[in-house]
Amino acid sequence: MFWLISTLLSFLGFFLIENVFTVQPNTISGNGNLGILIIMLFSPIFIVSYYLTFKLVRKKLKDIKNKKILLVILFFSLVLLLLPISNYINDLVFALGGDPSQPESRIYRFGWFNQYTNSMFFNGYTLLFSYVFTIIIGVLFIKNS
Question: pLDDT tens digits for 36-54?
Fold first, then answer.
């Protein structure tokens, strides 16, 4: 139950960072990156959720017979998730007019982590990627009987 609550709160944190605390590319923001506050607030929840996911995987899959097949499927899932993550990043950079080194970009001289790019790091794809990665780590740490 605690795992479910922490996972739902993690989802809420990612949702807030992506949809509420990321400034849209067509908007001008001079307030700085308020998303950092939410990231700091939710970081302990993210960590607890990943830890509980790791423990749950080790407990529920301790008698798994085809660990290698599961790992291949999970690893393939990670590779597949890289495509929408890459597309998301490319679309956002395009919408911002380029990367931080380009003078015509909305994020010129801001660096990669700012109020316009929070969603680049905290979105549904990266949330799923982080949980699949945590599951892989959990499976790797299952002791063979």
Answer: 999 999 999 999 999 999 9
> Where in the chain are the domains?
2-140
> Does the pTM of the predicted model rise above 0.85?
yes
Q: What is the DSSP letter of 115?
A: T
Burial class (CB in 10 A: 0-12, 13-18, 19+), 22: buried
Long-range pairs for 7-13 at CB < 8 Å and ≥24 separation? 7/49, 7/52, 7/53, 7/131, 9/42, 9/45, 9/49, 10/42, 10/45, 10/46, 10/49, 10/127, 11/127, 12/42, 13/38, 13/39, 13/41, 13/42, 13/45, 13/46, 13/122
